[in-house]
Amino acid sequence: MATPAQIIANRANAQKSTGPRSAEGKSASRFNALKLGIHAAAIIIPGEDPAQYEALAADYRCDFRPQTPSELFHVDTMLRADWQKRRLQVVEADLFRTLLAETPGASLAAALLSESPAAKLLARTQRQIAAFERAWYRARTELRRARQQAEDASGQSFERYLDRLCDMPPIGELASIRHPANIALPDSPAGLAIPAECHSLATP
């Protein structure tokens, strides 16, 4: 339970939140409310708390901050895998209790080797949990790879820009500001001398 001071602080922080500012961030976040509602309706089953799913989804968005549709896909995949794994872990615990109740006094190993329907279902549930974990890690790997590729492409573009700048001819060689051959450039000592035609103007 939040204290009154925490509630006031949370409200103050909420007032400071301006949401995404970049075009990419706005594009990725504009469907958040709709997307969350669709996901909740598709994945929540009777007995589960939609508020817990919404809180988990908000944590994922805050933690990974997807900026493009592909990043959003990978984050959604991680979210669904996480939620379904949590669901099956509850089933797994119930099956363990069922197995031990079916074989009073037997060890857990003996119960697992009993080939009872509960033991078989437990094995299938554990395989599915492992599959959700693999899906989560694959999605995170793809998300990191996509972001690294985007960073590399951005860095290469900047390096190409610098290369083009370095390949440009010196300013004195540019045709648009070419100097006559009989006039020295300003950075030479001769360029500081007063031209002869100016002496008549300088003398009374």
Features:
mainly alpha; 8 helices
Look at the helices and sheets and give the structural class: mainly alpha
Number of helices: 8
Mean pLDDT: 75
- Helicity range of the residues? 55-70%
From the alpha carbons, calculate the radius of gyration and give it in angstroms. Answer: 34 Å
Order of helices and strands: HHHHHHHH
Strand content bin:
under 5%
Which geometry do the CA atoms define? elongated
- Oligomeric status: single chain
Number of E-type strands: 0
Distance between the termini: 94 Å
Q: What does the largest sheet look like?
A: none
**Unreliable spans:** 27-38, 188-192
List the topology elements:
Blueprint: H1 4-16, H2 23-29, H3 32-43, H4 50-64, H5 69-102, H6 108-112, H7 117-167, H8 199-202
Helix pairs in contact: 4-5, 5-7
Note down, in words, how this protein is organized.
The relative contact order is 0.06. This protein is mostly helical. It is built from eight helices and no strands. The longest helix is centred in the C-terminal third of the chain and has 51 residues, at 117-167. Helix 5 (69-102) runs antiparallel to helix 7 (117-167). The N and C termini lie far apart (94 Å).
Question: Gist?
Answer:
By secondary structure, the chain is mainly α.
